[in-house]
Design goal:
This protein has about 270 residues and is mainly alpha-helical. The chain has 14 helices and two strands; from the N terminus they run αααααααααααββααα. It is globular, with a radius of gyration of 24 Å. It binds a DNA duplex (20 and 20 nucleotides) through helix 3.
Length: about 270
DNA sequence: AATGCCTTACGCTTAAGCGA
DNA sequence: TCGCTTAAGCGTAAGGCATT
């Protein structure tokens, strides 16, 4: 049978189960599944797999019984469903943390918790970036330099996590950036990215009051566009980000760490009816 | 009005049935 | 045994109704 703990998305897990059952038993079908579980709709499983239907807590039980999951697996399955179907990012993050705490998950994804922290806390990225400036740095000085204030203990903990993730390394008695690619990781850990963005937007808002005007640039434009120009707009944003990274890469006298955020979202919602 | 859950309908493939 | 017909079963799409 398929090992559920290899999955962080219950729909993908169900898809794998479907494939496995189908391969091993030609009589298995979406219809058979519905019949066994007491659904009158023959394609319910397919709709769920395709993400077109969510499942209720009652259905969770039907599924786990059909799949013959033991208590531990059923609990994990239930968490995956709740995580996947969570309405808000706060809910999502809560279920993500429960999944990360699950002992079997932990064994299979030892860095899951580390990735989650890296994604969710704004200063992890800042700490890593500050190490690229040409200064002698220890947790104490890093803590003193970061605004808003981050405690020495938090910096130390961040450094330990970054070391485990291979994002920094120790060299000549100081920490330097390691060019380990940040893999997108699993869906659960990366759900924390939403929290990261919220944190950063919050810092951006506060910077209006706390940071002198000459050290920041807060600006925006409001425009109207047709749908066909949205991909073009995204390209422009992407290119701009790339240019900024290039500028930083060529800078020989890095002194401070800056955050540059770009937001684009609709202020109106009108469907194209032409 | 939109969403979510479920049923009904459609068109295709496969397998069973049957006469020659 | 062969070849055709037909029914059953499949995946997918659309429809419908209650709830929000």
């Amino acid at each position: 049978m398929i090992d559920i703990f290899k999955y962080t998305n219950y729909r993908e897990y169900l898809k794998a189960c479907y494939g496995f059952l189908k391969e091993n038993n030609s009589a298995f079908s979406y219809r058979y599944f519905s019949m066994k579980c007491g659904y009158k709709s023959p394609n319910f499983l397919k709709l769920v797999i395709d993400g077109k239907r969510n499942i209720s807590s009652q259905s969770i039980e039907k599924f786990t019984i059909f799949l013959k999951l033991n208590k531990n697996e059923a609990k994990y399955f239930s968490l995956l469903v709740e995580f996947n179907q969570a309405k808000s990012s706060a809910q999502k993050s809560q279920f993500a943390q429960e999944i990360l705490k699950h002992s079997t998950f932990k064994r299979l994804h030892p860095l899951g918790q580390d990735y989650f922290e890296y994604y969710s806390k704004w200063y992890f990225v800042a700490v890593r970036e500050i190490l690229a400036t040409k200064q002698k740095l220890d947790p104490k000085t890093i803590s003193a330099q970061l605004t808003p204030k981050v405690s020495e203990a938090e910096v130390e903990s961040a450094i330990e996590t970054l070391l485990r993730l291979g994002l920094i390394k120790k060299q000549d008695n100081r920490y330097v950036q390691a060019h380990q690619l940040v893999t997108t990781g699993d869906e659960v850990s990366s759900s924390a990215v939403a929290q990261y963005h919220k944190n950063m937007l919050d810092l951006a808002a506060k910077s209006i009051d706390n940071i002198p005007r000459e050290l920041r640039d807060i600006s925006s434009v409001t425009v109207s566009l047709g749908e066909e120009n949205i991909p073009r707009l995204k390209e422009l944003i992407q290119k701009f980000r790339k240019d900024v990274l290039e500028l930083s890469a060529q800078d020989q006298k890095k002194l401070n760490v800056y955050q540059l955020g770009i937001q684009m979202f609709p202020l109106s919602q009108c469907k194209d009816e032409s």
